UniProtKB/TrEMBL annotation:
The protein, known as: Uridine diphosphate glucose pyrophosphatase NUDT14 isoform X1
Native source organism of the sequence: Balaenoptera acutorostrata
PANTHER family named in the record: UDP/ADP-SUGAR PYROPHOSPHATASE (PTHR11839), URIDINE DIPHOSPHATE GLUCOSE PYROPHOSPHATASE NUDT14 (PTHR11839:SF15)
Domain of life: Eukaryota
Keyword Ribonucleoprotein: no
Entries under InterPro entries matching the protein: NDP_pyrophosphatase (IPR004385), NUDIX_hydrolase-like_dom_sf (IPR015797), NUDIX_hydrolase_dom (IPR000086)
Keyword Transmembrane among record annotations: no
PROSITE patterns: NUDIX (PS51462)
Phylogenetic placement of the source organism: Eukaryota, Metazoa, Chordata, Craniata, Vertebrata
Coiled coil: none
Family the UniProt entry places it in: Belongs to the Nudix hydrolase family.
């Protein structure tokens, strides 16, 4: 996962995943504008201009990006189930943070190799199991169960899930909506290795965080993690942990 080579950055001229837009509006009599991104629901295999390897009609773009995330507690191990993976945007951000100006020289002639390169660990983050709601006909609970299996190898049914919260994320860029679920699992429910779908380029490692170290993990600013991890841990410690019996 952390063996990253030949990292290069170029301008994104066209993307099958992101659509940059500008909202023009008047607020309290003042004309304003704001740039934002919309997320492509799923690449229609028929549109050659967006998916060069395919042919057909334009894809649909999500009116609002929706996703789900799942906080799992493995009662067999008394651990919280997290994942970690390499995030290119985090990696590029770390390069720019440590070597200001590294991204400023990017032009439209082609990708420019990042110098100096950082180890792949600079772009690895701890996260909750999560996924986009991009398959028509599936409920949020069904999507969450699908992601739990693909990423972490746990068999879950929609009835196993407890809805924690629905909230906005990426409010300045995507205006996304995410729903968090909670589920208690056991080792008996882990029937696969997880790791994500290789055909989609996913390379995910399952991490079992011991419960007695969860608070320190959430509070440690040197551990790269998402806000969802911090919120999930504190929600668990407030709402679930007090009711757990002794180990």
């Amino acid at each position: 996962m952390e063996r990253i080579e030949g990292a290069a950055v170029g301008r994104c001229a066209a993307s099958p995943y992101l659509l940059p837009l500008t909202l023009h509006y008047r607020q309290n009599g003042t004309q304003k504008s704001w740039d934002f991104m919309k997320i492509h629901d799923s690449c229609d295999p028929a549109w050659a201009s967006v998916c060069p390897s395919e042919q057909g009609t334009p894809p649909s773009w999500a009116v609002e990006e929706r996703s789900v995330t799942i906080l799992m507690f493995n009662s067999s191990r008394r651990s919280l189930v997290l994942v970690k993976q390499f995030r290119p945007a985090v990696y590029a951000g770390e390069v720019e943070r440590l070597f200001p100006g590294s991204l400023a020289a990017v032009d439209q002639d082609g990708p420019r190799e990042l110098r100096p390169a950082l180890p792949g660990s600079a772009g690895v983050t701890f996260e909750l199991c999560a996924g986009l709601v991009d398959q028509p006909g599936l409920s949020l609970e069904e999507v969450a169960c699908k992601e739990a299996w693909e990423e972490c190898g746990y068999h879950l049914a929609p009835s196993d899930l407890r809805r924690v919260a629905t909230y906005k994320s990426g409010v300045g860029v995507t205006g996304s909506s995410q729903t968090m679920f909670y589920a208690e699992v056991t080792d008996a429910q882990q029937g696969g290795p997880g790791g994500g779908l290789a055909e989609e380029g996913e390379l995910i490692e399952v991490v079992h965080l011991p419960l007695d170290g969860a608070r320190a993990f959430a509070d440690d600013p040197d551990v790269p993690k998402t806000l969802g991890v911090i919120f999930g841990i504190w929600w668990f410690l407030s709402h679930v942990a007090p009711g757990l019996g002794p180990q």
